[in-house]
Design goal:
- The chain is an alpha/beta fold and 111 residues long.
- The protein contains 3 helices and 7 strands; from the N terminus they run βββββαββαα.
- A 4-stranded mixed sheet has the order 1-5-6-7. Strands 2-3-4 form a 3-stranded antiparallel sheet.
- The protein starts with 6 loop residues before the first strand and ends with a helix.
Length: 111
């Protein structure tokens, strides 16, 4: 299933997120609601109550960005999955663009 950039915003300061099977479960002071995990690409939590470690692990495994903010909107932390990339390739790219003689032909080719 293709995710369509669906973002879950948790703005209730009493809300606590957890995982039940393949569903997000949001427990609040006035009730509980569920949302299918497969429909969400990122979560912004504006609550000090936070979320369960099991949910954090599932988000990391499924590459669902989980960000925590104070109720006032100040950034606290972010949980993401494994980062893919080739460190040696990036280092070589930086070395090439650090050397003017090798950098100019690449820039001319791009422009």
């Amino acid at each position: 299933m293709k995710k369509l950039l669906n973002t879950l915003y948790v703005t209730d300061p009493t809300a606590y997120l957890s995982l039940d099977g393949e569903n997000f479960v949001c427990k609040k002071s006035d009730g509980t609601f569920r949302l299918p995990f497969a429909n969400i690409e990122s979560v912004f939590c504006f609550s000090y109550a936070g979320c369960s470690p099991v949910l954090m692990g599932k988000c990391a495994d499924e590459n669902v960005a989980l960000s925590f903010f104070t109720p006032g909107g100040r950034f606290l932390a972010r949980v993401t999955g494994a980062v893919k990339g080739n460190v040696f390739l990036r280092k070589q790219q930086l070395d090439v663009f650090g050397d003017e003689a090798r950098r100019l032909p690449l820039i001319r080719n791009t422009v």
